[in-house]
Amino acid sequence: MNASSAELPRRLVLLLADGLRADTARDYMGYLQALQEAGRARACELRCELPSLSRPLYATVINGEPPLVHGILGNGQAGQALPHHLFQRLHAQGLTSAVAAYHWFHELLSGEVFDPLRHRDALPPGTGIVGARWYWEDDYPDSHLLADAESLRQQHAPSLLFIHPMGPDLAGHQHGAESPAYAMSARKLDMLLSQLLPRWHAAGYDLLLTSDHGMNADRMHGGPLPVERLVPLIWVPHPAGEAGESGSSGPGAGSAGTAGSSDSTDITDSTEIATHWDPLAIPLPQRQTDIAGWVLDYLGAADGPR
Ligand SMILES: [Zn+2]
């Protein structure tokens, strides 16, 4: 990848919306669509690894290996640690992370079975995670989790803010993926993002949004059908020149974004601005197993020790 050709340091929000189908994200998230139509975001689809289940794919997203390789093959493997993952790699390069996520992520990172009364804000050792908020009820509201995450971001200013809301997965299991409730979960997430993303951008954070797996109308997922496998990948870098700790200086940063464009061409057409580094035009992960490496590359930690 060549995502590392412009100024560092960077800051990234990686938002993993649990159980959000690609077509649902496309059809019901109007704020994200507005950003795409304005040439400020790019969206594509990824085909998730198999089995299309949460715990195995949480592990895949943060360590870059398919379940058959990392060995987390089912949701019941409570307390089993992943031997390596992107948080470690960031830590090895002196970069910090903050995490607001379901407790299974705590288990993958700590190797301990989650205890709500001990681990609510526990920092898994050796991970470089400087702030954490773990939830364990599937109906913990996305609005609360995103506020938790924003609080961590403001407190710690991490290089990576990892956020994992459960709303779409919960609605899908309760009502099926063709239900009004499932669509509403995506609409709600979109409305929350419309309030948070401008703040993230103002602070110099870029957003990569994806999902672990899709959802079937039969209220489950796990298999290879497209509805269970196709997930969104949406990239929304902060506009160049917008206030922030990074991105307002360095080669190309002031001239490649929406505000700095002197002509009226659509900035999604990267050939029109090929002489400038355009964060919107960088290569995106092509597979779910590329995400962890892409994050490391983007944050400047790709060459660190494993
Ligand atoms: Zn699920």
UniProtKB/TrEMBL annotation:
Compositionally biased tracts (Low complexity): 258-267
Region Disordered, annotated ranges: 238-267
Gene3D superfamilies (alphabetical): Alkaline Phosphatase, subunit A
Entries under Pfam families matching the protein: Phosphodiest
Name of the featured protein: Putative AP superfamily protein
Lineage: Bacteria, Pseudomonadati, Pseudomonadota, Betaproteobacteria, Burkholderiales
Source organism superkingdom: Bacteria
MF (Gene Ontology): hydrolase activity
Composition skew (Gly residues), residue ranges: 247-257
Cross-referenced InterPro entries: Alkaline_phosphatase_core_sf, Phosphodiest/P_Trfase
